[in-house]
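Deliverable D4.2, example record:
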Amino acid sequence: MDPRYGIRLWNAAVRRAANRCARGKDHFIFYEDFCKDPERALRQACMLWGLAYDARMLSDQGATHSIARPEETWKSNVAHNIKPATSKFEEVFSESEKAFVEKHLDWAAYESLRHCVEARETRHASP
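Output generated by the structure prediction step:
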């Protein structure tokens, strides 16, 4: 398996997102942050979008059948608590392939995006 195509896609997406963040065009929620503290991430999103937060947004109660039809097996856990997905990266790649991928990802662009998002969150949280 050659990971170069995926590396190019990830790098391009992160660079594009960092650029859009710097221009104030979009709002970002990092998957890992959402999994770590879904309430905080959802409260932040509601604040940014001018919506009222309601604890029921994170409730696993209610009708999920309307968004998860039987043939849509990838939605099977939609009513369960939010948790990080298992990492295919760890399962699929050898140690040398993982090292290659990590060496070629644009971590500077990713850090730039994270810093931009954190700065915007701080600005929005200030009165």
